[in-house]
Amino acid sequence: MKRSYTISIPVGTFWKVLLPGMALLAVFGSIGGIVFVDRVVMPNVVGVNRDVVTVPDVAKLTYEEAREVFFKAGLLTEIQGREYDDTVPEQGVISQQPIAGARVKKGRKISVFVSKGKEIAIVPDVRNVTERQARIIMKKAGFTLGNVKKVFSEERPVDVVINAFPKSGTTTSREIEVDLFVSKGPRPTHAEVPNLVGESLKNAKKLIAESGLSVGAVSYQNNPSLLPGTIISQSSAPGSNVPLESKLNLVVSVIR
Question: Which pairing describes strands 247-254 and 214-222: parallel, antiparallel, or unpaired?
């Protein structure tokens, strides 16, 4: 003889507890199913993951080599900065962001820091080369050129480097600018007198010094038609040759 069993649930409990609980389970089950389909099933069906790549490791490769590696992976490259590094050769990649192994979308720019080489280096020998050649040599060695000072030299032709400061062969930081001393040729015995009439006294003194001459007596003359401080006349005619370091006397306008 079969027995039948029944479960008796109070009506209040059914409406207040059981039915809401079943509804919640159904909702959470639906959400879980949607997430699963969206994150797992659909990417494999439509190929979403095909646009995601693993970032290659380019540490210590040259920048150009790193660009090629990233390009083949479908990624772009940008230089975030340059800094000195004693272990990574010049133009080598020190670090990258995102790091190697990260998963990113194709077309993403990968930032890299590029080495400027060792900070401490030897100042190259640029003596007896032209100023232009010296600039190229200094740049290749990673040094920045500072001031270029033109000086007379009996031994070096015009535009040839006499020496550098710090001197060639000195071991120093590449952060320090290197000055060049470049020949103006032999010191002349005579100088050409510049035309100073109409110049300001300040500019006239500069032109006199650049010509290898010196300022002599300065006198003043009333001249309302000219701005005060304008050269009215000079003791030697413009274009004439006079012994080097000769003095030029000047007459300067004033308004009284």
Answer: parallel
Which residues, other chains included, contact 126 with Cβ-Cβ below 8 Å and sequence gap of 6+? 133, 134, 137, 138, 161, 164, 168, 180
Task: Determine the topology of domain 190-254 in CATH.
Answer: Trypsin Inhibitor V; Chain A (3.30.10)
Is residue 215 within 8 Å of 205, Cβ to Cβ?
yes
Q: Are 141 and 168 in contact (CB under 8 A)?
A: no
Stated pTM of the model? 0.49
For 61, the token pair is 């490769």
At which residue do the structure tokens 């270029």 appear?
148
Q: What residues contact residue 151 under an 8 Å CB cut-off, 6+ apart? A: 162, 181, 182, 183, 184
Tell me the mean pLDDT in the region 33-55. 66
> Distance between CA 188 and CA 245 in Å, rounded?
10
Q: Is residue 5 scored above 60 in pLDDT?
A: no
Of 210, 161, 163, 212, the closest CA to residue 183 belongs to 161
Q: Which two tokens stand for residue 53?
A: 């790549």
Annotation: CATH topology of 120-183 = Trypsin Inhibitor V; Chain A (3.30.10)
